[in-house]
Design goal:
The chain has eleven helices and 16 strands. The protein is an alpha+beta fold. Helix 4 packs across helix 5. 24% of the residues are buried.
Length: 389
């Protein structure tokens, strides 16, 4: 049997488990962090070729950065395309040392060497007004859409109110991060420095109901940007333990649930897996019984819908007072509601559940933020309605 088989099937002593954990934290995770960040920035279609090129072009600099020493090959390479194999020195097993401050590493890897501990909910005392405000903001922040009522109460109890003055830095790019923040009031500007020799660039302004700081917790990485208060601001902070124990797990389950469905939506074929995961995080489910109205002609529209299961029909009164006639049919994977959001008009038709209907929806802000790149496609597809406008 191989060493790997022995490692998997035979119980490890405590010393060996500590050595393996140390190796993961010190050797593997720092490299994975760099790789994941570059993947998320570049979002390549061909991930394999991207990673092959990523390692090839960074080979020498990565070895230097991580202190990997290579033995000289008996036959010197003429260039990087020669077929001669390099002799690479075996990596020494790391020495177990006391852990210092948390290093910048990539996503937390749980398993035989790094067992995930059960989350013990903490409670920060707060008044009913604070709890009400937190609940309102959680409803607005898509990061918390996957939580059920019990999980939301755990998060409400764990959150801490923090106040910042205009001009004050909340988080700084490159520093360790142990909290994510939800904005209750005020505005905060986001900046990112893309390279050492460049000035930091303004990315966006956060306002009430928006959240930031989750990347450092998701990937156990340094802060990816700097957030500075544009005005006096009140934020609700959530610690790493609660985020990982409650929010992250719930979001992962929700993402897995919608992953297959979103892959079948024709509209989203141009989007990559990362962009689709953002949609999955923001979706909210809604159910309708056969015969129920989902939207009514003339109503104000602030929601965009995908049909997860079931069928629906669109009916429209061509003139005021006329009986609505059927103008369109929808099936699983179809979408509707975009006209009101793209053109800022009232609902142009009734949408009625032809069967029991399972929908997932995006509110106006999420629609613009996440589906913005698809606006041209959505506008082109509006031709299907033209004869009924």
């Amino acid at each position: 049997s191989t060493w790997g088989d022995n490692l998997i099937h035979k119980p490890l002593g405590m010393d060996q488990e500590l050595i393996n954990r140390e190796y993961i934290n010190k050797k593997i995770n720092p490299l994975l962090e760099k790789m994941v960040v570059d993947l998320l920035i570049s979002k390549p279609d061909d991930i394999v070729d991207f990673l092959v090129d990523w390692f090839n072009t960074r080979r020498d600099s990565l070895k230097k950065e991580f202190g990997i020493v290579t033995k000289e090959s008996p036959v010197k390479r003429k260039d990087s395309h020669d077929d001669d194999e390099d002799e690479v020195e075996d990596l020494p097993m790391p020495v177990v040392a006391k852990r210092g401050p948390r290093n910048s590493v990539s996503a937390e890897a749980y398993g035989i060497f790094n067992k995930k501990q059960a989350y013990v909910a903490k409670v920060i005392q707060k008044g009913e007004d604070q709890k009400r405000r937190i609940r309102e903001r959680l409803e607005q922040a898509f990061m918390f859409n996957a939580l059920d009522e019990r999980e939301k109460e755990i998060v409400v109890n764990a959150m801490e109110e923090r106040r910042f003055n205009a001009g004050e830095t909340v988080i700084k790019q490159g520093e360790d991060g142990d909290h994510l923040y939800v904005v209750d009031s005020g505005q905060l500007d986001c900046y990112r420095q893309f390279s050492k020799n460049e000035q930091q660039k303004f990315l966006k302004t956060y306002g009430p109901g928006e959240s930031f700081g989750e990347l450092a917790l998701l990937y156990n990485a340094p802060r990816a940007a700097t957030i500075i208060c544009k005005s006096d601001s009140v934020l609700f902070a959530l610690d790493r333990e609660c985020f990982n124990g409650i929010v992250k797990d719930a979001a992962s389950k929700k993402r897995e649930k919608y992953e297959g469905f979103l892959a079948r939506v024709d509209l989203l074929q141009a989007m990559d897996a990362y962009e689709k995961s953002n949609i999955a995080d923001a979706l909210k489910p809604e159910k309708f019984k056969q015969g129920e109205f989902v939207v009514k002609q003339g109503d104000v529209g602030d929601t965009f819908f995908f049909i997860e299961e079931g069928e629906a029909v669109a009916t429209k009164a061509m003139k005021p007072g006329e009986v609505p006639i059927e103008v369109y049919q929808y099936k699983a994977g179809d979408y509707f509601g975009e006209l009101a959001l793209l053109k800022n008009v009232t609902r142009q038709a009734n949408i009625i559940a032809k069967t029991d209907l399972n929908l997932v929806k995006l509110d106006r802000d999420s629609f613009r933020r996440i589906l913005g790149p698809l606006e041209d496609i959505l506008r082109r597809n509006m031709h299907r309605y033209q004869q009924y406008m």
